[in-house]
Amino acid sequence: PQARAGIISTVEVLKVMEAFVNEPNYTVWSDLSCNLGILSTLLSHTDFYEEIQVFVKDVFSPIGERLGWDPKPGEGHLDALLRGLVLGKLGKAGHKATLEEARRRFKDHVEGKHVLSADLRSPVYVTILKHGDSTTLDTMLKLHKQADMQEEKNRIERVLGAISQPELIQKVLTFALSEEVRPQDTVSVIGGVAGGSKQGRKAAWKFVRDNWEELYNRYQGGFLISRLIKV
């Protein structure tokens, strides 16, 4: 927060973050991840965006290598949460080994060879979408349609905004208002687009303005309209 307010140098904050590479605590990594996400958002409007992605890979890869992809004997719930957090962060940043493994596991998941565990689905989905194409998005939308449980539908809805290409971002936004998505979940899809990239933020803002009447009529007087404005 102090860096965002201009009180201390962002460089100093990043140096402090580097000191946590051997930290095993989930809460600490969650906080680091959140703050790096905010910095990435701010830097996406500058020439330093790619450099912050390199920084993310450098900071998160040691803990990622220690955790691996599969649970170890005696692991607790927080270890599973930490694994998902770290792999998702590395995957979005384009860490080569993480991206390759995510694609391999996603392929096995789609083909029914080896179903992904619940705690690995979001990081894998985010990774393959961030670096995916129209085929990737179509596969995710198919998984959404086939999902029996609302929990899985919501999981997919939250990550669709990770897709990068402008025309696919528009497809996700159109999907958000379709009958495939429950009205109370539309905001999650739009919010995911807004948080996915600089292009996504611009597209989501335009989409909300263009469809304001329909969105307002849906949510007037409710907390979802304020949440939509916030995202």
Automatic annotation (TrEMBL):
Domain ERAP1-like C-terminal: start-end pairs: 3-230
PANTHER family listed in its UniProt record: PROTEASE M1 ZINC METALLOPROTEASE (PTHR11533), PUROMYCIN-SENSITIVE AMINOPEPTIDASE-RELATED (PTHR11533:SF174)
Domain of life: Eukaryota
GO biological process, one term: peptide catabolic process
Name under which the protein is recorded: PSA aminopeptidase
Keywords: Aminopeptidase, Hydrolase, Protease
Keyword DNA damage: no
GO cellular component: cytoplasm; extracellular space; membrane
GO molecular function: metalloaminopeptidase activity; peptide binding; zinc ion binding
Source species: Ardeotis kori
Homology family: Belongs to the peptidase M1 family.
